[in-house]
Amino acid sequence: MKKEEKINYKIDSNILKKYVETINSIKEPMSQIKEQLNKPLKKMQEQLKNINTMSNAIKELSIKYPNEQSKIFTDIIKQIMNINNGMLSTRMIEPLNISRQYISMMEKNNDIERISRGIYILPSSFEDSYFSFQQKYKKAIFSHMNALYFYGMTEEFPYNYTVTVPQSYHVDTVNKKCNVFYVSDDIYEIGIVEIETPSGNKVRAYDKERCICDIIKSKGRMDLEQVKKSVKQYIHSKDKNIAKLSDYAKRMGISEKVMEMVGVYYE
Description:
By secondary structure, the protein is α+β, with helices and mostly antiparallel strands.
């Protein structure tokens, strides 16, 4: 008897990687992105191009194997998860028009595990709580002592997340799970970078200079001694950028406060 040939549903790794990076960088609701994809745009944005390329690759597989849709979609979900460090948020499949029923099917078959609403991991993966949290709350930026923990600049372990969100962002479950700082849109954007969590996944946090501004501004809500230690450590670090710190402080309207505290430790 002839051995059944194993069908390859693999998507090109570069297409997958660009798609995952794109989806992780998008903060807008996926419904808005899908709306844009349906409009005839003369010059498509790079983000939309990456999504469109991924969609076309899936369509090609569906045309090639018309009776294998279920296998194609479940295999593609696994491929996305492998590129995304073993994790998946349901918004990652929305622009591809892959029904959530395939996720339910995979969960039922123990191919994936649900760790919170809309967030799944492969059984072989370890949950990175910082990463999965931000996958769920895209506009929450790790800040203050929480971000400084990633940089090794605080002795405080963040048992509760500390995040900054825009004033217009109102999701009650965020307030229940962490310390939340609400700021105006112009301040929210200052100093956002990508940084690795202790588990090696990339999340969005504020850079060191923004964190120093934040902890000085909010020292009334924090352990003052730890604030002082972190400011001192920053001032004595080789990669400090005082010009950037000064610029941030001016834009945030706290220049005098920041420079006064920094001056205590600056030699």
